[in-house]
Amino acid sequence: MAKTQPVARSAENQFAYPGWRVAVVCHIGVLTGFATVFIYSFSFMVKPLGQAFGWDREQIARAFSLAAISVAIFSPFIGKLFDRFDPRKLITGFMAAFGLGMGALAFLTPHLWQLYANAVFIGVAGTGTYQLGYARVIAAWFERRLGAALSIVVAGSGVGSFVVPPLVAHLLATHGWRATYLGLAALPLLIGTPLTLLFARTPKVGSVHESNQAMRGDAAQGLPWQRALRSLTFWLLALGVVALSLSENGALAHLAPMLGDHGLSAGQIAITASLLGISSVIGRFVLGWLLDFVKGSHIAVGSLLAAGVGMLLLAHARTFGAAAPAAFVAGLGGGCELDLIPYMLRRYFGLRSFSTLYGMVYSTFAVAGAIAPLVLGHVYDRTGSYTGILNVFCTVTLVASVAMLGLPAYRYAADGPVIADSVDEEPLRATGSIREGEKEWHTLDWKKDYRE
Q1: Domains by residue range for the chain, with CATH
Q2: Exposed/middle/buried for 73, CB within 10 Å: 0-12, 13-18, 19+?
Q3: CA-based end-to-end distance of the chain
Q4: Which pLDDT belongs to residue 62?
Q5: What pLDDT does residue 8 have?
Q6: What is the pLDDT of residues 373-419, one digit of tens each?
Q7: CB 3.0-4.6 Å disulfide test: which of 14, 59, 96, 342 passes with 55?
Q8: Which residues have a Cβ under 8 Å from the Cβ of 89 and sit 6 or more positions away?
Q9: Residue 427 has pLDDT above 70, yes or no
């Protein structure tokens, strides 16, 4: 048994390891799911829908908000399903439902409730198609190279930001908005669904990773979500995500008018936005690779610092020469939640409630991301400037980066013995593998340890 873990880690470094093929399939799944197909196509459909039915932009934008709120509400519940049942089958079902929801938009009528009902359905189904489920699959395949594997998966949304907009623009120009929705529906139905069903499998019983898990006492080793919620670690991670979402989503939602007010041209604004997107994709790959070699709390500090400083400089940029590098720095740190959060949840809390906790953290990110643009818009209407409130949001992000130094050592580290509930800890303490009191300081209830 003792030889199983090194064998698994060695296999992960080989190109032929099947987990890498699964990671590529999960990348394609994210690329064809809600996080790209719906998110990056919506703004292109605002004018066609307004022209077709006479709806104003606020009415149409409300559909986007309904979909986003649905994702925030249902992420923890769907995450719990991923922890209890085979994620491959669940994602397949959600992907098919999401595709049907996108296709149904091609048959919209002047009744606004139909758009809103479709948006809610797309949000609920789409919750099962973004990184939430695919990260659960990858977390079962990888230990030592988990960070690199997750970076491949979450990069699907970054790649989608380059693929989906030109595709939508071409379909709208040549075939109209109804055919465009049918074309978008084909991506999850004809690509995401079959690929996920056929190839996004978790390791078979008897594999090196299953044996490694068996050595730790349980096929889904980890803390129950109720106990994780009582830990200081979980709330530190949530704080980092909320702070990042406030500064990132607040600035991004108002990026064009903010930079326009500062004197940048439309072309310069477009280039600045592209630099932010490109650096975000680069940051995800670099961050994922670093996670396998550097302590996650240190990377969290660097990512939040980059995002906070970059957004702060962007808020004060008055020239393209100042805005472009600021956007690049902000993008490098801004994508960290997609790699860093699932990685650190896996390391601190194990697989038992991985998707449930991921769904909870993502909900906080989504809620903060929905609030921030509204706050910025309200403050701008009252003061005529975005700078003051962005200073506040970016300061919160910088404070959160320092708070990440309070994160403890990994509980389920890729290297060294795993501190599991089912393992007799006395021999580990005797050899120095677990220091006295190491377990207790993770919890908010200082008088109880993880065993209760």
Answers
A1: 4-215 (1.20.1250.20), 225-406 (1.20.1250.20)
A2: middle
A3: 29
A4: 83
A5: 52
A6: 878 888 888 888 888 888 998 899 999 999 999 999 888 876 544 44
A7: 59
A8: 197
A9: no
